[in-house]
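Title: Comparing notes on inverse folding

I've been comparing how different people in this forum approach sequence design from structure. To keep things fair, I'm posting one structure and asking everyone to reply with a full sequence. Here's the target:
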């Protein structure tokens, strides 16, 4: 939901500044396949709706590998300045993942507020699910974990982190920047 909102706001801001959507096509990224592979890996190891993942083995190493691919893509494309904001968000997400052995701490309250009660219940029963672990005194860097939430009254409500916010802001800025820059 945050990503979709960021895209819409970026496009609206681009048009408000007399930008053109077609200018986005002129952005030149190197090694785009790195991001595509990273996204495919994440889709395979993490269920989108709380169901079972398609790949159930080597989740943590694959998760870290997907981050490594994304970081490499950003590093190869830092000349596209808005990627720096997006990269900062990714690093803020990576820190708690590393500190918690590949799992993002998530607040049960944030899950409940956004309507993900089934995931909260699964976490209570199992402690871990997909790429998240129940936030507690034993988890590290909880401040950077998924502790924020979009209320249930909004479509696509989710629990998210400060890093997720920066990723979304970076994406919105990238769209705005790409639409308004001189070609």
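Reply #1:
Here's my take.
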């Amino acid at each position: 939901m945050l990503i979709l909102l960021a895209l819409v706001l970026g496009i609206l801001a681009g048009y408000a500044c007399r930008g053109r959507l077609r200018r986005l096509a002129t952005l030149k990224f190197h090694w785009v396949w790195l991001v595509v592979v990273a996204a495919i890996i994440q889709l395979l190891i993490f269920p989108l709706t709380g169901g079972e993942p398609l790949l159930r083995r080597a989740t943590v190493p694959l998760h870290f590998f997907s981050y490594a691919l994304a970081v490499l893509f950003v590093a190869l494309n830092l000349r596209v300045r808005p990627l720096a904001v997006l990269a900062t968000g990714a690093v803020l997400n990576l820190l708690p993942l590393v500190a918690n052995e590949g799992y993002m701490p998530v607040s049960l309250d944030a899950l409940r507020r956004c309507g993900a009660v089934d995931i909260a219940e699964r976490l209570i029963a199992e402690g871990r699910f997909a790429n998240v672990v129940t936030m507690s005194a034993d988890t590290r860097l909880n401040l950077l974990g998924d502790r924020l939430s979009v209320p249930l009254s909004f479509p696509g409500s989710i629990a998210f982190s400060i890093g997720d916010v920066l990723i979304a802001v970076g994406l919105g800025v990238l769209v705005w920047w790409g639409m308004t820059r001189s070609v």
